[in-house]
Design a protein that fits this description.
Layout: E1 10-15, E2 20-26, E3 29-30, E4 35-38, H1 44-53, E5 59-62, H2 67-73, H3 77-86, E6 90-92, E7 111-117, H4 130-147, E8 151-162, H5 172-177, E9 181-188, E10 216-223, H6 230-235, H7 238-242, E11 246-256, E12 261-269, E13 275-283, H8 288-305, E14 314-319, H9 322-331, H10 340-351, E15 356-360, H11 368-383, E16 387-390
Parallel strand pairs: 4-5, 4-7, 5-6, 7-8, 11-14, 14-15
Antiparallel strand pairs: 1-2, 2-3, 8-10, 9-10, 11-12, 12-13, 13-16
Helix pairs in contact: 1-3, 8-9, 8-10
Length: 397
């Protein structure tokens, strides 16, 4: 993937036996990569890329506004949207950048580029007001927190933003760092690189008018490599782990080959053998070991989001797949060889401050908790429902 391609409309043709495959570039973006655009105004940026590529089939363009709000706000929005759909782009409305990883049309997809041009939390006061800066920072932080889970391996997050005060006070690089992202480069932005793109104010009587984009740069972020000390800090702290209260996530995946379907589930159990939380969800058809890997990832993320993660409570994760656990252990710390899912598990383990241990319980699924997690996995497979549920706290943590 190139992150600094300056050839607008550049075509790179490679001859096969019976066909010519043409790749088209617009600044950073290639027609061969999956692109998610966040916070579109009148969708002119999305249309600029789709027109240059000759197709929008690799583009998912989203807006926070509803369709009705857009066409009533921006005079060219309806026409731009019509052209985008004709070119094969996917258009989604009412997508919140703070919660987009849970959107039903996005949660199973991965992208090479995720692009957010000129993020803004709304107009509630002067831009140099500390409360306004905090609102903007909260938006960008939550965007990073969601976007990283929708990236492919070696994918990039692009944020175009002004670099002079008060906008420089947002401190994008620090917000990214807090989400296990690192700044690769910062490239001057020039709207002329994107013919047809018209930036919009999005506020008051001049809502459909452009704003001054000078002194703007595109910040390019990637997932930060893990610390070389992560492996020892999470897998070799037996003494520390024994001194802490701990909980256990039992995870299970079910695959029905004749139905070409799969499901996974997890049950969180405390030291008193009480069920504290559970999750379940359907999966595309896949091998059971990969499904177990996804169940482990879901368990880690659910624990990370919980109060337990911040209360010195250690975590055990029991899976039925020794293969999935071996994948995590053998690839841990080597980002060049990690698949997307292993990389996301790696990132979660790097953020969790408490000891985490992984166990294989193959052939030992006995007792009420193991029967429960199996039933939940089957339920997810049969009903195609997804759920995360916490049980009221009764363990004193």
């Amino acid at each position: 993937m190139s992150s600094n391609n300056n050839y607008n409309g550049y075509e790179n043709s490679s001859l096969g036996e019976n066909m010519v495959k043409t790749e088209k570039w617009v600044k950073h973006y290639s027609s061969n990569h999956e692109i998610l655009l966040v916070g579109e105004g009148d969708f002119s940026f999305a249309l600029s890329l789709a027109m240059a590529f000759g197709s929008g089939s690799n583009i998912v363009a989203t807006s926070l506004d509803s369709y009705d709000s857009l066409i009533n706000t921006y005079k060219k929005a309806a026409l731009n949207l019509m052209h985008l759909r004709f070119l094969g782009a996917t258009v989604l409305h009412e997508v919140d950048a703070r919660q987009m990883q849970d959107h039903p049309s996005l949660c199973w997809r991965k992208f090479d580029y995720i692009v957010y041009n000129f993020p803004h939390a709304g107009f509630y006061g002067s831009e140099d007001n500390p409360d306004m800066i905090n609102k903007h920072q909260g938006l960008v932080y939550d965007f990073f927190s969601n976007a990283r889970w929708l990236l492919r391996h070696n994918g990039q997050i692009h944020v175009t933003h002004k670099i002079k005060p008060p906008y420089s006070f947002w401190n994008l690089e620090e917000l990214a760092h807090q989400n296990s992202l690192r700044l690769m480069e910062c490239v001057p932005f020039d709207i002329k690189d994107y013919p047809m793109y018209e930036n919009k104010r999005g506020h008051s009587s001049t809502i459909d008018e452009p704003f001054n984009w000078k002194d703007s740069y595109t910040f390019i972020f990637t997932v930060a490599p893990p610390s070389p000390d992560i492996s020892s800090s999470h897998f070799n702290l037996q003494g520390c782990r024994d001194a802490l209260p701990r909980v256990k996530f039992v995870v299970k995946a079910e695959v029905r080959h004749f139905l070409m379907a799969a499901g996974y589930a997890g049950v969180l159990v405390d030291e008193y053998h009480s069920v504290r939380a559970m999750f379940w969800g359907p999966l595309p058809y896949m091998c059971v070991n990969f499904a177990e890997l996804l169940a482990i990832k879901c368990a880690l993320l659910m624990y990370e989001r919980s109060h337990l993660c911040h209360r010195n409570v250690a975590l055990d994760v029991e899976s039925n797949s020794n293969v999935a656990i071996s994948w995590i252990r053998s690839n841990f710390g080597n980002t060049l060889e990690l698949s997307t899912e292993l990389q996301e598990i790696n990132m979660a383990l790097g953020r969790i401050p408490n000891p985490v241990e992984l166990f294989c319980c193959y052939g030992k699924y006995e007792g009420a908790h193991y029967h429960l997690v199996r039933r939940l996995a089957v339920k997810a497979l049969d009903t195609l429902n997804m759920c995360e549920r916490w049980i009221p706290d009764n363990a004193g943590y």
